[in-house]
């Protein structure tokens, strides 16, 4: 019997799963999930993400059980233990081949190479698949043969070269003849340092992910380009946690767009095509992780910014973390993330730029704080976004682009609805006063004065960047 072993990681679904489909086409399948909590925490993942991961494993185990595919479970401390843990299962169940979908941060790349080598030495074939991207990193390059460091030309070439086959959905396995192997009982998560936001905010599983996609396409996608920057309305897809752990695939999203948009991705309905671009951003950052591994070592992509004189300001950092900077939009956004494990994308840019430019605090501190709280925390996207805001990364904002939080608030939350929701102390103020409450109102509502003046902070940031030698 040609037993196939599927190693699940951040691809927690049975539909459109390249590794699972390939394994099922070859013979009876057993699946394995290696839980690596210590390693995840060392990578910055907090309780929200790890809890969501655990719930996702429960959901995919239930789906696999419906196909008579047992899901085994092992706890390991570190990625370095993965080769032996997988080989032990392979030997125990006379596995003929291992199948898994690649991940692209540097430590994950090294782990996967070590697994492939260990299986090769054991004379067992190991197959890796580029499931999370349309183009394998290294196959979409500039005319000079380099990885793209700017998004727009990357996206243009992506649209030009992407094929029907690349976006075709993989087969869902048919139920197989039951095996004598039974699924493992999944252990409960140990008590983590911080409290998770819980299942009510983000129910796990591909069924929920599919419901999110369907509702987005039906009710919000046509207005996405207009509403995605307005935090007081549900204008985004809210799919980022499900994409981060593979409870839905980029191909499923692209196929859904094409069915709504006459078969097109690059033209047609502007709401849909704008969202497609956001999906391509996710792929771009995964290519960057492979092509420029220094970003996986917490180094800036723009090498000259290594010398930037960041400020040591623990008090300012703590005020930012706790949502008490005195800038209502920044504070409301930070409180939203701590309470729900998610933050609106426009506000991720605003808060990241406030920390890195207004306070001139090292972006890596903010990147780490986001990872500790975000249920959709994903290294490639989080790192890319933070480096963009801090003007240290690929395709980054020019160093002189410094969002004025008050202007951003008036533009994207004109009536202060989002602010009132997350800063109830300001909800009784007139709408226009919520963006920057006058001093005489601050004492009445128990809200702090701004911890930094926008104009002064802007000049300080400009001087710091101008001092860099290229």
Provide structural commentary.
- With 470 residues, this protein is of the alpha/beta class.
- It folds into three domains: 3-131, Rossmann fold (3-Layer(aba) Sandwich); 133-166 and 206-291, Serine Threonine Protein Phosphatase 5, Tetratricopeptide repeat; 303-466, DNA Cyclobutane Dipyrimidine Photolyase, subunit A, domain 3, CATH 1.10.579.
- Helix content is 48%, strand content 6%.
- It contains 21 helices and five strands.
- The chain has helices at residues 18-24, 37-42, 47-65, 82-92, 106-121, 151-161, 164-167, 206-220, 224-227, 240-244, 250-260, 270-291, 314-322, 328-340, 345-358, 363-373, 379-390, 405-412, 417-422, 439-445, 454-466; strands at 3-8, 29-35, 71-75, 95-101, 125-129.
Helix-strand layout with pairing:
Blueprint: E1 3-8, H1 18-24, E2 29-35, H2 37-42, H3 47-65, E3 71-75, H4 82-92, E4 95-101, H5 106-121, E5 125-129, H6 151-161, H7 164-167, H8 206-220, H9 224-227, H10 240-244, H11 250-260, H12 270-291, H13 314-322, H14 328-340, H15 345-358, H16 363-373, H17 379-390, H18 405-412, H19 417-422, H20 439-445, H21 454-466
Parallel strand pairs: 1-2, 1-4, 2-3, 4-5
CATH A-level architecture of the largest domain: Orthogonal Bundle
Strand content: 5-15%
What overall form do the CA principal axes indicate?
globular
Q: What is the domain tally?
A: 3
> Quick one: CATH class of the largest domain?
Mainly Alpha
User: How do the strands of the widest beta sheet line up side by side?
Assistant: 3-2-1-4-5
The helix/strand order is EHEHHEHEHEHHHHHHHHHHHHHHHH
Distance between the termini: 61 Å
Output the structural class: alpha/beta
Low-confidence stretches: none
Helix content: 40-55%
Mean pLDDT: 95
Going by CATH, what is the homologous superfamily of the largest domain?
DNA Cyclobutane Dipyrimidine Photolyase, subunit A, domain 3
**Given the structure, what is the number of helices?**
21
CATH fold-type name of the largest domain: DNA Cyclobutane Dipyrimidine Photolyase, subunit A, domain 3
Largest sheet: 5 strands, parallel
């Amino acid at each position: 019997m040609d037993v196939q072993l599927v190693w699940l990681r951040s691809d927690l679904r049975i539909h459109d799963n390249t590794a699972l489909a390939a394994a099922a086409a070859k013979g009876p399948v057993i699946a394995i999930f290696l839980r690596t909590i210590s390693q995840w925490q060392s990578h910055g993942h907090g309780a929200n993400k790890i809890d969501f991961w655990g719930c996702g494993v429960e959901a995919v185990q239930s789906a696999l059980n419906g196909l008579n595919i047992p899901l085994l479970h092992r706890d390991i401390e570190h990625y370095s233990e993965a080769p032996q843990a997988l080989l032990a299962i392979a030997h125990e169940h006379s596995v003929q081949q291992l199948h898994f979908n690649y991940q692209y941060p540097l430590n994950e790349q090294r782990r996967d190479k070590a697994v492939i080598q260990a299986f090769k030495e054991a004379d067992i074939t190991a197959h890796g698949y580029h499931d999370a991207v349309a183009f394998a990193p290294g196959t979409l390059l500039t005319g000079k043969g380099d990885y793209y460091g700017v998004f727009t030309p990357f996206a243009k070439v992506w649209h030009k070269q992407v094929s029907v086959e690349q976006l075709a959905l993989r087969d869902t396995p048919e139920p197989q003849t039951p095996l004598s192997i039974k699924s493992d009982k999944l252990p409960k998560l140990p008590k983590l340092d911080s409290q998770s936001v819980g299942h009510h905010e983000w129910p796990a599983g591909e069924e929920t992910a599919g419901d999110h996609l369907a509702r987005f396409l039906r009710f919000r996608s046509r207005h996405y380009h207009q509403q995605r920057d307005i935090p007081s309305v549900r204008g985004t897809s809210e799919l980022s946690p499900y994409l981060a752990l593979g409870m839905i695939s980029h191909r499923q999203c692209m196929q859904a767009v094409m069915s709504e948009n006459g078969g097109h991705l690059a033209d047609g309905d502007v709401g849909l095509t704008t969202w497609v671009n956001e999906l391509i951003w996710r792929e771009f950052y995964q290519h960057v992780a492979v092509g420029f591994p220094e970003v996986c070592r917490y180094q800036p992509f723009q090498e000259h910014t290594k010398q930037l004189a960041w400020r040591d300001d623990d008090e300012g950092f703590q005020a930012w973390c706790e949502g008490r900077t005195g800038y209502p939009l920044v504070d409301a956004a930070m409180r939203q993330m701590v309470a729900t494990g998610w933050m609106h994308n426009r506000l991720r840019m605003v808060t990241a730029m406030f920390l890195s430019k207004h306070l001139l605090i090292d972006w890596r501190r903010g990147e780490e704080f986001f990872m500790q709280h975000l249920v959709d925390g994903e290294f490639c996207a989080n790192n890319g976004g933070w480096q963009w805001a801090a003007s240290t990364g690929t395709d980054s904002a020019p160093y002189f682009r410094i969002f004025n939080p008050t202007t951003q608030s008036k533009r994207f939350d004109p009536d202060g609805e989002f602010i009132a929701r997350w800063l109830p102390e300001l909800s009784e103020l007139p709408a226009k006063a919520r963006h920057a409450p006058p001093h005489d109102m601050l004492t009445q509502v128990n809200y702090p004065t701004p911890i930094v003046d926008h104009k002064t902070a802007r000049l300080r940031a400009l001087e710091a960047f101008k001092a860099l030698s290229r």
